[in-house]
């Protein structure tokens, strides 16, 4: 895994038509000798197989999911889920690599935040780690980055990260976003403004439900670490 | 009205207001490339019908909140993603191709919810994925991040 380069990644992404191996087909006089016939045959066979695969299996082959879709699905995964998904098959394993790295940054960030595991507590380093994790697409890291920003008083940036996580379907992100927006827009209209704001996100159509959850259990919502 | 053609040569008429939820088609219309039928070579008619059903329902997304139809829409979404894995895969691929942001979120969320807390074996079985990792490769994944393999085992059941 450690040796996987971006180029490898690109090659491994399945596309149609499949890449020519530049092999026997382009060799002059290849059909003259009997030996050369073998790879020729194999080449056309694999080609054919691929084609029939496309036709019969394209509707159900989840191992062919594009990496960006896979990352979107797994964005909210916690460690055990991510671990399981990574072991499913080769393309998932390769596709989920950024999220596994994000988990590492997340773990690192938590150490820095609390000063555990032999490191001194350093909120800036913690934030740095969380941002790295967030950049790799993990909503867990986004929520933690948002939390740090919020605690630092950089509320706008905090909200931006909660929003990012919320759009990707992270429940902690959605709750925290709701709470923050309620706090920012205090007053009688406090409820209305976040409602319309959150509608812009459009991913949650069940706002009334979410907000009642927020109000009932604000402490739980914040304990996302 | 915009005409869409699936890869099995069936044509569908969709209101422009509905179809522009697809970024791809929206761009085509803006660029003036959508004067006749838009062929969709990656989508079969069965999937396209599903997608159009979604687009038509979400046509007035912004207005839904004012008229109190939000719950209705939520219920529709829940019903909509209540489909088998194969169908879900088709819809995800179509949504990805057409670049329909919300449909993508909805389907990915549904897939994520179904996969959560499932073991490797269960995921493979549910999605009918054959394991193409060799033992060495599996070990390599573990060696790559050994700390990630601590912790409790998870649900092995398939449903």
TrEMBL record, chain A:
The F-box domain covers which part of the protein? 59-92
Q: Which PROSITE patterns match?
A: FBOX (PS50181)
What are the top taxonomic ranks of the organism?
Eukaryota, Viridiplantae, Streptophyta, Embryophyta, Tracheophyta
Q: Which InterPro entries match?
A: F-box-like_dom_sf (IPR036047), F-box_dom (IPR001810), F-box_motif (IPR053301), TPR-like_helical_dom_sf (IPR011990)
- List the Gene3D superfamilies: 1.20.1280.50, Tetratricopeptide repeat domain
Q: Which PANTHER family match?
A: OS04G0476000 PROTEIN, OSJNBA0022H21.17 PROTEIN
Report the protein name in the record.
Answer: F-box protein
Domain of life from the UniProt record: Eukaryota
From TrEMBL, chain B:
What would be one Pfam family of this protein? Skp1_POZ
Q: Report the InterPro entries cross-referenced here.
A: SKP1, SKP1-like, SKP1-like_dim_sf, SKP1/BTB/POZ_sf, Skp1_comp_dimer, Skp1_comp_POZ
Which pathway does UniProt place it in? Protein modification; protein ubiquitination
Sorted keywords for this record are: Ubl conjugation pathway
GO terms, molecular function: cullin family protein binding
Query: Subunit structure, per the record?
Result: Part of a SCF (SKP1-cullin-F-box) protein ligase complex.
Q: What does this protein do?
A: Involved in ubiquitination and subsequent proteasomal degradation of target proteins. Together with CUL1, RBX1 and a F-box protein, it forms a SCF E3 ubiquitin ligase complex. The functional specificity of this complex depends on the type of F-box protein. In the SCF complex, it serves as an adapter that links the F-box protein to CUL1.
Name of the protein described by the UniProt record = SKP1-like protein
Q: Which organism is it from?
A: Capsicum annuum
